[in-house]
Predict the 3D structure of the following.
Amino acid sequence: MRYEGTVYRPPSEANSLILQATIGCSYNRCTYCAMYLEKRFRQRSREDLLEDMAIASDTLGAQSVRRVFLADGDALIMRTSRLLKLLEDVRDHFPNFQSASVYASPQSLLSKSVQEIRELKEAGLPLYYLGTETGHPTVMERIAKGVTPAQMVDAASRITGAGAKLSVIMLLGIGGTELSREHAVESGRIVSAMDPRFVSTLTITPVPGTKFHEDVESGRVELPGERETLQELRTMVEHMDVTRTVYRGNHASNSLPIGGILPRQKDEVLAVLDRVIADTRIPLRTRPSPRHL
Ligand code: SF4
């Protein structure tokens, strides 16, 4: 396959064919995100994408592609008619294609109606990853998400309202020690309001070149320690009041891999966290450096 620059995808898309429908992120202003800083945002032409699909079909075998991830940061910003055509092209190339997924920025979601998301879901795009990061208004503003918590919930409702699958990502440590508890409480609450199919927690890893990294280096933001971060996670999970959500906390950035089905296994998740927080002899996983995440 031909890719421009580094390509990112959620861990759960490891077996998906990655199609780079857009390059970079049309928003590109979140203070902690370095993923697309060096890419100038643009949409790729249908001709380019058809060539990519032909290459994938030749090299991987047309029958082998079942799932597709539409990269880069917010391919959902493409016009709905273009996305529908792209999904049609994917189906034409890969006879066993089952479903596609995409990172959805709040901005791109707010530009779509529930009906548009429903059409996309029916055309083969049923799963959307939304980097929510926090539910706390001050933290959300400081990290420049570009929306308020209420707008973030509205963005998420475009997905759930269409009967599509919402996968929400929350960031531990992003409020620093100063707002750790408030960030945790409000994050649990925003997850409750969204009631997603999946929620995952990642631990913030300041990446050189970002404003967040500068804030940490200069001392403007102090990051919580490992067990303080686990306490933050505990408070966050405690405040998640959801119907049926798969919780995954096994990302490489986390010092303790953990997860479960909420609310059924909530008490078990909290009990594990309580034990690890209280017993400092329990070793935690070494977190990798930013370039290995
Ligand atoms: S919307 Fe997502 S990809 Fe774009 S800058 Fe923010 S975190 Fe990065």
In short: The chain has one domain: 11-279. The mean pLDDT is 96. The domain at 11-279 is CATH 3.20.20.70 (TIM Barrel).
